[in-house]
Amino acid sequence: MARYYATGKRKTAVAKVWISNNGSGKITVNGMSLDQWLGGHEALKLRVRLPLALTKMEGSVDVVATTLGGGYSAQADALKHGISKALCLMDESLRAVLKPHGLLRRDARVVERKKYGKHKARRSPQFSKR
Fold first, then answer.
1. How confident is the model over 45-73, as pLDDT tens digits?
2. Cα dihedral angle (79, 82, 86, 87), rounded to 10 degrees?
3. Residues 78, 67: contact at Cβ < 8 Å?
């Protein structure tokens, strides 16, 4: 039983992912099952399972992950990125399946910093002529 490790990232969230190749399809995140961890967020659960579904590995690999930073949505995307990278380490031929869907690319969009003299990053104070 071999284990493969990869790190997935999104915004300020980081997911450390370990995949074991002869498992039963169990996904454990921060010591909880995926259903416990994400509760009723079905869209996020589908997003996390997407790399496994595309590579038809849902019932054959076990995923153990630790997530930190960001919110649950960013953590779910970081987990998706980490699973994709770990699957590529496990089997290099899966890269051709995952790459066209953009699952191996880190989503680089982050929150723009606030500038002085502005209310937010770009919002200016209201102009008053008189």
1. 999 999 999 999 988 999 999 999 999 99
2. 60
3. yes
